[in-house]
Every structure is written in C-alpha cells, then in structure tokens.
Design a protein that fits this description.
Number of strands: 4
Structural class: alpha+beta
Helix content: 25-40%
C-alpha cells in the first residue's frame, strides 16, 4: 500500500517540547496581575470621566454654531450608514428634517448612562418639541455600601455592566393624527419566539416609543455620531459597503422629497 501524502516527522521531533507550553503562574504573581488590571480599569474610567467633563464646553460651543446651520443634525445622522438603515423610510427623513438639535445629558452618578434629547421645530408630525431616550442607571445592590475614592470612583463603577445596570426607557410621542403617526404606519415587527432581533425595525421613531433598543441605536449616536458630528455632517467619514438598493422603496409615499444630501466639503488649499 502506498504511503503517498503522509509526511514523516523529523528524527527527534517527538522529543521537542514547546518552550511556551508549560508556563506556570504562581498565586502571588496572579494576584499582582489582577491588581494591575484593576488599576488599568480604574485609570481608563477616570480618563473617560475627565474627557467628558473637558469636552462639555466644546460641545456647547458646537451646539450654538450648529443651530445656525440648516439641517446640520439630519445630515450628520443620515451620513452614518447604520443610522441611515434605520431611517430609510421617506417619512422618517421628512420628520427628521425638522430636527434642530441633538444633545446628551449624562447621569450624574454613572456617566456611562445618558439621555439623548432630540429637539424639533414646529412640524406636521407631532406636538413634542423634544423627544428623549433615556438609558437609566439601575445601581446594583452592592452600590448602596460603596465608598468613592478620592476621584469619586467606586467599586460598583469598576464592575459596571451595560446589560445588568442599564434599563432603556420608552418615551411617548404626541402624534398630531394617525395619518402622521409613523410608528403605527411602520411598526416594529418582532421576530419568531426566541429571536433576539426584530424581523423588521419599522420607523426610526420606534426607537423612542419602545423601551428596548435591540439595534443599539442610542449607543451608536452617543459614542459614534455625537462626538464626531462635524465630520459626519461634512461627509469626512468612510462609507461602509452596505447595499442600499431598497433606500427608495417608499417612493410611492405622498411626501415632499427632502434633500438631506451632505454638503460638499471645500477642497483644501495647496
């Protein structure tokens, strides 16, 4: 019988040992590494909190400037590919064209929790001037006995879990009439029992009226779009290669075409 295709091991290879295969870690060294890991986590959290404080006046300055620029926030949001997928209905974009301001209010205790505020001018869709999405901090039982250190950091903060400690809230939108109620016209369609994700997201405004945020739109806005809003408004961000064949699927709606195209950035002088 042929031994074709079978490689012979080099003489003595079976005796060779992996020099990295038997690394032993003493209990003392493991404890030292754990201490350093906690110090790293604490420093990361402290730097994040300091950054948020330092950036606040800068964001306030941007806020005032952006209010004077037509459709700044609708354009910035729609230039984010994933956000655009969740606001693909023409009616959603028409309603978003009345958006004047987006702001984030951080929880005073746990700054990783926040409330998104969308400010709208008078529009034909709803009477609210502001729509909110709160990601409410639910302190774990151990937090009651926490003592903050000199920087205000507690043990519960270091053990923070978004899945465990955060509870998204629903917000009621006061629609002017059923013909403009986008969450009724385009409801979120849940998937089969046991599915984690909805089968169809429906209108973007379901994001406010339904507590759960399975697509993590709020986190996307807070951590990605809001800090880089100017870059998104100017279109200075790479576009993901995501099919947009269905973007115009709602052309039959009796809505005025809303121009949310990004402005053309000026060419840099050479």
């Amino acid at each position: 019988m042929s031994a074709k295709g079978v490689k012979r091991a080099s003489p003595g290879a079976e005796d060779e040992k992996n020099p990295l295969g038997e690394v032993e870690l003493s209990t003392e060294d493991a404890a030292k590494l754990e201490t350093v890991q906690k110090a790293i986590a604490r420093t990361d959290l402290l730097l994040e909190r300091i950054t948020q404080q330092k950036m606040l006046p800068v964001y306030e300055q941007r806020r005032e400037i952006a209010k004077g620029i037509a459709k700044f926030w609708p354009v910035a949001l729609m230039n984010h590919t994933m956000f655009g997928i969740h606001a693909q209905h023409t009616s959603d974009q028409a309603a978003l064209s009345y958006l004047e301001d987006v702001w984030i209010v951080r929880d005073p205790v746990e700054s990783r929790c926040f409330t998104l505020e969308f400010y709208f001018k008078e529009n034909p869709y709803f009477t609210n001037t502001v729509l909110k999405k709160e990601y409410k901090y639910i302190p774990p039982p151990a937090a009651a006995n926490d003592k903050p250190d000199e920087d205000g950091i507690t043990q519960s903060m270091l053990e923070f879990s978004w899945e465990r400690d955060v509870e998204p809230q629903a917000f009621k939108i006061d629609w002017k009439d059923d013909s403009k109620n986008l969450t009724k016209l385009y409801p979120r369609q849940e998937g089969e029992p046991g599915d984690d994700m909805p089968e169809e997201p429906g209108s973007f405004f379901n994001f406010f009226e339904i507590a759960q945020d399975p697509f993590e739109i709020g986190v996307l806005i807070a951590n990605d779009i809001f800090p880089e809003a100017i870059e998104y408004f100017l279109g200075n961000v790479p576009n993901d290669d995501i099919d947009s064949d269905d973007e115009d699927s709602d052309d039959d709606e009796n809505e005025e075409e809303i121009d949310l195209e990004k402005p053309r950035p000026k060419k840099a002088r050479t």
